[in-house]
Every structure is written in C-alpha cells, then in structure tokens.
Amino acid sequence: MKNIDARSKLIGDFFDRDITQLKEDYPSIVETNTRKKTFLYRQGDCCSNLFWIKNGIVKLSHLTERGNEITIGLLRKGDVIGRLQDNSVDQDIDETAEALNEVNCYRISHSDFKTMMSRQTELAWLIIEDMYARKQRIESRLRAILTQPIEVRVVSALLELAEMFGIKCTQGIPWKSI
Prior knowledge:
Blueprint: H1 2-15, H2 19-25, E1 30-34, E2 39-41, E3 49-55, E4 58-63, E5 69-75, E6 80-82, E7 96-99, E8 103-109, H3 110-119, H4 121-147, H5 150-165
Antiparallel strand pairs: 1-8, 2-7, 3-6, 3-8, 4-5, 4-7
C-alpha cells in the first residue's frame, strides 16, 4: 500500500504542476482532452509522440489480419503509451489507443520525454516499474490463453479488472462502473 501511495503522490505532484512551467522545461508538451470513444492514435499511424495519461481510461488494442480486435490492456492515470524507441518517427505504431471515457493526457515528443526522465529520476524509475508490470500482466495473460481452460481465463480476467477498477471493502471487491 505504501508503494501505491508514494506512486500516487509522485505522479499527482507532477500532474499538479502548471502547464506553462512544464512547457518552459519541455517545449513539445501539450495537454490534450480526448472524448469518449475517440482515438489518441491508431494502429498503422506514424506516431512519434508519447502520451502520459493524467486521468481516464485508455484501451490499447491490436487488429489482426483477420480483423479480430485483441485488447492488450486497459491503462489509467500515470501510464505512458506510444513508442519509446528513438527511431520511431519512421515506424508505424503497432496498436490502437482509444479513450473509453473522457481522457486527459500530456502529449510529448520523444526527445522532451527523454529529457524529462533524465531530470526526474524518481518519476523515471516509477514509469519503468509500471511498464515492466504491464509487460508481466500481458505475458501472464498470454500464458493463460495458451494453457488454461476458458473458465479459468474468464475468472482471471474478471479478477484483474476488479483489482484495477473495483473499490476494496471488507466483503470483497465490488465492481464500479468505468
């Protein structure tokens, strides 16, 4: 719980900073407001910016060649999406990022984000930890898809969603609407 509180405070403190000050330090940063069911970017777009979610929920998904949509993850406050590679300007993005509700985020260039992370080392480490945890969740889901019966996969998915979006109480984790 202590790590979650420290994470929330660190990210909250950063997001509470005045955008004018942030623009002085990182000229490309722009605060964006994205309406429900609109896209931050789509699979196949050339997108060299990163998006740092201030609030709201973003769905990352991938469209297969057969036209099936695979949800990669649901992201929320503090998560960073987009291409982190320096050479991403010439590469198409591999996933779609869609706002599931109203989403506020910072859009920032790769170079400014890199500068920000070198100046804000505690924040950088937090983002690295979050990205690693996201990678672990995706790998765990993939293992479950390949090795577990459908019933176990459904229960696992529901538990993950309840932990992510539920409200903890003494009787369990009740569901709250997204």
